[in-house]
Specification:
Layout: E1 2-9, H1 13-24, E2 29-32, E3 48-49, H2 58-77, E4 89-93, H3 96-110, E5 117-120, H4 121-127, E6 137-141, E7 145-146, H5 149-162, E8 166-168, E9 175-179, E10 182-187, E11 192-200, H6 206-211, E12 220-229, E13 239-241, H7 243-250, H8 258-263, E14 268-271, E15 277-280, H9 294-307, E16 316-326, E17 333-336, E18 343-347, H10 357-370
Parallel strand pairs: 1-2, 1-11, 2-8, 4-13, 11-18
Antiparallel strand pairs: 3-7, 4-6, 5-6, 9-10, 10-11, 12-15, 12-16, 13-14, 14-15, 17-18
The protein binds flavin-adenine dinucleotide.
């Protein structure tokens, strides 16, 4: 049997960020990961750190707290994370209907004081000259940025380890130690780990892991497929999604095409520091099916060429996929579960977990170490999905 102040289940970006923040507060931490760091969504993702893809209201407010933290993160973590602060985020719009929908969402988002605007097609092409002439206009968020998610996850991981956190890979949590209604630890096949607090940071698998503790939480995998091109010269600065990305995310009821809905097909595209373009944009419910599918990749590549015609001549060199941790209300589950003292959730960030990783780790560490976070996150409580057990 092993003992520590905190056991974190899941060594993805949320688990590593939480471990680092807890270690900074002097807590002894063990991270149990069934595979290795980066084997989940954090290793199969883009790195958009922007405001314009965030749900207006509480999620936007959380994003503002989190994105502010990126300004000093590289220095604090002590290794490069490739934060491109001035990149901006853009969503080219195809027609008046998309323009009207996005304008409405932008109006709501701007109530939080963020700078997101609708701009003309000419203005959009001045910012990103490779954009097709065949667009109606664009959403533009000049203060959004991008990050290298692999480097960021590893930076949290290394910083946590330097402060004494212990990482145990190839250790799948298979059960919980629950005594008198209190969570006292977890079990793997080989060992029992006891702790004052157990944090479920299992991303798209967090619902399955919570079920091992008798909790039914509606976190499901939402698959995203990605294609990577050969490196090209400087091509774009902003992170780009087509307008349909936000339309599907916030107003899915306005989409009537079954195929678009099935794949959640839109376009997301950004250029990495090495010159390669990462092209994605599917949001599929396909259980835990990892395979890349021709239909999805074909749609994504065609949409990339529709908005950036020069990409027709660029070769795609590899594909992969990842699972976003989807929740029905689009908000993560953060904080303690009242029904099971000692058990905490930090999961369900869907397509925003990279951007929300700094603040998630900080607030979770405050909850666990200080009893209360400095910023009120009651709206994200896992309890919202749990009805009281019947007497
Ligand atoms: C295609 C795609 C594009 C995305 N683009 C962006 C973006 O641009 N910006 C952004 O902010 N976010 C983006 N995201 C979302 C982001 O990647 C996720 O929200 C984030 O990675 C979730 O992190 P996590 O640590 O919660 O989960 P994960 O990184 O999935 O980590 C969970 C870990 O738990 C482990 N685990 C599971 N079960 C157990 C168990 N029983 N015992 C021990 N360990 C276990 C897994 O092996 C895994 O390593 C994207 C995601 C995808 C798929």
């Amino acid at each position: 049997m092993r003992n520590s102040d905190v056991v974190i289940i899941g060594g993805g970006i949320i688990g590593c960020s939480t471990a680092w923040q807890l270690a900074k507060k002097g807590k002894s931490v063990i991270i149990l990961e069934r595979n290795d760091v980066l084997s989940g969504a954090a290793g199969a993702t883009d790195g958009v750190v922007g405001y314009h893809t965030k749900k207006p209201g509480q999620q936007m407010e959380l994003a503002i707290q989190s994105i502010r933290m990126f300004d000093t993160l590289e220095e604090e973590l002590g290794e490069p994370i490739e934060y491109g602060k001035c990149a901006g985020g853009m969503q080219p719009v195809e027609d008046k209907m998309q323009w009207d929908i996005l304008s409405g969402i932008v109006e709501e988002q701007c109530r939080s004081g963020v700078d997101i605007r609708m701009i003309s097609a000419e203005e959009a092409r001045r910012i990103e000259p490779q954009l097709s002439e065949n667009i109606y206009g664009a959403l533009y968020s000049p203060t959004g940025g991008k990050i290298n998610p692999l480097k960021l996850t590893l930076a949290y991981f290394h910083a946590a380890k330097r402060l004494g956190a212990e990482f145990i890979g190839r250790s799948e949590v298979t059960g919980f130690v629950i005594e008198d209604g209190v969570c006292k630890g977890v079990r793997t096949r080989d060992e029992e780990y006891r702790a004052g607090a157990v944090v479920n940071c299992c991303g798209a698998w967090a619902g399955k892991v919570a079920a091992l503790a008798g909790l039914s939480l509606p976190i499901r995998p939402r698959k995203g497929q990605l294609a990577v091109t050969e490196p090209v010269g400087p091509f774009m600065k902003a992170t780009i999604q087509c307008a349909r990305y936000n339309v599907i995310k916030f107003r899915p009821e306005t989409i009537t095409d079954e195929n678009i809905l099935r794949y959640g097909s839109s376009l997301s595209i950004e250029q990495q520091e090495d010159g390669a373009m990462i092209i994605g944009g599917t949001r599929e419910f396909a259980d835990y099916e990892e395979e890349n599918t021709f239909a999805a990749i074909d749609t994504m590549i065609k949409r990339a060429a529709r908005f950036f015609p020069l990409l027709e001549n660029v070769s795609v060199i590899r594909f992969f996929s990842g699972f976003r941790p989807y929740t029905p209300d689009g908000m993560p589950l953060l904080g303690p579960v009242s029904r099971l003292p000692g058990f905490y959730m930090a999961a369900g960030h869907e397509g925003d977990g990279i951007a929300l990783s700094p603040v998630t780790g900080k607030l979770m560490a405050e909850y666990i170490a200080d009893g209360k976070p400095t910023y009120n996150i009651d709206a994200f409580s896992p309890d919202r999905f749990l009805s009281e057990p019947s007497a």
